[in-house]
Amino acid sequence: MIRRRAIHRGVLGSLALGALARQALAAFPDRVITVVVPFAAGGATDLAGRLLADRLGPLLGESGRAVVDNKPGAGSALGADIVRRARPDGYTLLVGSASTLAVAPASGAAAARYHPTRDFTPLALFGLSTMGLVVAADSGIRTVPELLDRLRANPGRFGFASSGVGGISHLAGEYLAKLAEVQAMHVPYRGGSQTPESVMKGETLYAVDTLGSVVGQVRDGSLRLLAVSTRGRDPNFPDVPTVAEAGLPAYEVASWTVLAGPAGMPDDVTEAIGRAAARAITEPAVKTRLEATGTLPEPESTPTATRAFLDRQFGLYQEIVQRIGLRLE
User: Fold this and answer.
1) Cα–Cα distance for residue pair 29/162, rounded to 1 Å
2) pLDDT tens digits, residue range 283-302?
3) Measured CA distances, 193 to 74, 91, 161, 198 (Å)
4) Which of 51, 100, 232, 243 has the greatest number of C-beta atoms within 10 Å?
5) Shortest CA distance to 286 belongs to which of 92, 295, 214?
6) Can you tell me the distance from the alpha carbon of 8 to that of 195, in angstroms, rounded to the nearest whole number?
7) What are the structural domains of the chain?
8) For 92-128, what is each residue's pLDDT tens digit?
């Protein structure tokens, strides 16, 4: 009889916990969701974060609302660490890039002492982003070989801009210099919007940054797009060669945008946010905006697939970091 009562209490307890979990999910979200973008406003990751935040809340429920909170710093690791330490309840999320969740931790950055999947809950892969090699339109440089010739003729005199130490644009610029065997000084800025400005002003000679961060200046003629970083050409600029086609066949780099939360989020909340984010990505208006800035949306995103993607990408960038000797102690 005692054993039956114990079993009965256990069953009732499990049912009660299940009911509480369903009640919590039914109420989610019952307050504003904060979407942390670990870059300054104006760059490609910021654009993706704002597009997602605008649609994520309504897709989660009638009372759903999400707002962007820009937290730049430490090559985007600062914002990531804020989310890592947040309560895993689904109300604090991260829009992370390759800089945030691959390059910074792979390069040993002091502010990025985290693992992309052990310390976060992957939710959705927003899309892959082409990167562009750009110079100022009035630089007199029209091709990748001309850029490399100028760097070789002036070793150590010129610099390249990036959106922060340990970010994807830092790695992409260093990787280019390493493969081409040229010297260029790294000049970091606090966000993607400052990178094209530094090139246009002549503070730096070139940058390799996401197309979403430079496409406006390329289209208005302030910057010249010499090449794209991916293996294939970008459909928005079909006449622009890849860096590999321009003479560095081993060169291939791409950025991406991932939605994640702190580790330990409840499965139900994880799945709900993952489904809402996947729906947002496939909406025609969102898809069109992303494609126009060089981001290829991922139409079949799931939390499980996003976790596997992050693990693969982290391994890839660990290899590149080792190859170029990029260490950020």
Assistant:
1) 37
2) 999 999 888 777 888 888 99
3) 16, 27, 11, 9
4) 100
5) 295
6) 64
7) 29-128+255-324 (3.40.190.150), 131-228 (3.40.190.10)
8) 999 999 989 998 899 877 778 899 999 999 999 998 8
Compute CA distances 75 → 4, 8, 40, 93, 193, whole Å.
Answer: 58, 54, 11, 18, 14
Count H helices, E strands: the chain? 12, 11
Tell me which range, 10-14, 207-211, 304-308, is most confidently predicted by mean pLDDT: 304-308
Q: Please check whether residue 157 is in contact with residue 186, taking contact to mean a CB–CB distance below 8 angstroms.
A: no
- Report percent pLDDT > 70 for the chain: 91
Q: Which residue has the tokens 């990787």?
A: 175
Predicted confidence (pLDDT) per residue in 148-161, tens digit: 999 999 998 999 99
pLDDT of residue 112: 85
* Angle between the N-to-C axes of helices 44-60 and 211-219, in degrees from 0 to 180, rounded to the nearest 10: 120
pLDDT at 63: 79
103 DSSP assignment? I
pLDDT at 214 over 80: yes
The token duo for 224 is 């010249």
Q: Cis bond leading into 29, ω under 30°?
A: yes
Of 175, 170, 197, nearest in space to 186 by CA: 170
CA distance 260 to 20: 24
Cα angle, residue 151 at apex, residues 103 and 294 outer, rounded to 5° = 45
Partnered with residue 96 across adjacent β-strands are 258
Q: Which two tokens stand for residue 39?
A: 């870059």
Give the pLDDT of residue 191: 65
Calculate mean pLDDT across residues 153-178: 90
Kindly list the distances between the CA atom of residue 222 and the CA atoms of 109, 203, 216, 217, 299, in Å, as whole numbers in the listed order. 33, 14, 9, 5, 33
DSSP, collapsed to helix, strand or coil, labels residue 61 as coil
